[in-house]
Amino acid sequence: MKTKTSNSKRGTALWQRVVQLEGKLSPTAARAILKLQFSEPDHAVMNELAAKARAGKLSAEEQSDLDTFERLGCLLDIVHSYARHALNKKAIELLQRSELAARRAKFPIDKTEEIIRRARRGRKRP
Question: What is the pTM of this model?
Answer without folding.
Answer: 0.61
